[in-house]
């Protein structure tokens, strides 16, 4: 899940560079990374199955 894969590492890494602000930015960064990966996976799915996947009879 997002919390394990992205949020925890970002909470540990970002404060090194941004201080306390990094702790507050970590959830937003985790959401952006998760969204990017979801979009890439969705694109790969449609490339594989074609656009007619949801409209097949």
Count of discrete alpha- or pi-helical segments spanning 4 or more residues: 2
Low-pLDDT segments: none
Q: What number of structural domains do the residues give?
A: 1
The percentage helix is: over 70%
Strand content: under 5%
Which class of secondary structure composition applies to the elements? Answer: mainly alpha
Spell the H/E element sequence: HH
Tell me, what's the shape? rod-shaped
How many angstroms does the end-to-end distance come to?
34 Å
The radius of gyration is 16 Å
Q: What is the average of the pLDDT values?
A: 88
Largest sheet: none
Number of strands: 0
Any overview of this molecule?
- By secondary structure, the chain is mainly alpha-helical.
- It has one domain (about 1-50).
- It has helices at about 1-20, 20-50.
- It starts with a helix and ends in an 8-residue tail after the last helix.
What are the main properties of this structure?
mainly alpha; single chain; about 80% helix; about 55 residues
In short:
The chain has 57 residues and is mainly α.
